[in-house]
Amino acid sequence: MTAHTPLRSIDALVARGLVAPDRREALEAVAARYAVSLTPALAALIDPADAADPIARQFIPDAAELVTLPQELVDPIGDDAHSPVEGVVHRYPDRALLKLVHACPVYCRFCFRREMVGPGGASLSGEKLDAALAYLASRPEIWEVIMTGGDPLILSARRVREVAKRLAAIPHIKVARWHTRVPVVDPERITADYARALRVPGKASYIAIHANHPREFTPAARAAIARLADAGHVLLSQSVLLRGVNADVATLAALMRAFVENRVKPYYLHHPDLAPGTSHFRLSLAEGQALVKSLRGHLSGLCQPTYILDIPGGAGKVPVGPGFLSGCETPGTEGAVEDRFGERHPYPPG
Predict the structure, then answer these.
(1) What is the CA radius of gyration of the chain?
(2) I need a surface site. Which of 14, 127, 254, 273 has the fewest CB within 10 A?
């Protein structure tokens, strides 16, 4: 195993000192069900002496993952019900997902697609890619295509350019968006050439970067993100609100500031999906709303993400952030507006 080889087994994690030998047997049972992979870049961030290390919590298997609650679902957001052809999810009228690959450089322990992704996951190619692109081309209402997976940025620059070229040939698609963890988990992969390869000619280009803790913004990650911004991509953030990782005001604030400092606009803060074996990560919605409310007024408006719940079963995403206005339910009734200090101010009707 070289210094650049991902850690893909419990034995590798034990050898690296990231898992105690006496946990090996319990975690082998987890690895037998859910994929394991950790890049050297992330492994270097973990403090083995810290039992509550927030990077380890995201990527090192935990025996709690074998506890599945009755409300947890194999397909928690209903991808399958909205997949007209393999590789495409078309849930909303004007946009569709193009799932290019079923593998990732790392496997998050809270992943909502954890039952579907893993090492060796096949990429969408040949006739299957042809069929997926033909579907997108046949639906003029599709204005935006979101490349996801797995993580599409594990594909080679050649494959990425091929997909970009074919999307560019579909006139009604105006926006191309890539969703990825790669800039923070494997930053060396994002060369200037690769950043250019992600551009879809003639389309607006967006990249949503997934990070959950400010420590993920290493100098190498910051340089990779800068290469994407310098190549002309608009950068957005994706984060998941996770107990033991970022579910406190100071960490959440530092995370959002880190995004903005790196030219990434905070976009979605996801409430964890009901994926099997992930209950140890979830807060209540009320706890999440209180945390998000604490950001308003204390952080720049640039740092405010939208707190989102993906309704189980496939009904789609809805904002579930805190409310600041009350008393206006009845027409003609004076309302009350709450400021950042919790003080309430009257607001006239009409």
Answers:
(1) 21
(2) 127
Which pair of tokens denotes residue 323? 């409310």
Look up tokens 């950042």; give the residue. 340
Count of alpha carbons within 13 Å of 70, Cβ hemisphere only?
A: 0
Catalytic residue numbers, as ranges: 91-92, 95, 104, 108, 111, 113, 273, 310, 317
Enter the pTM of the model: 0.95
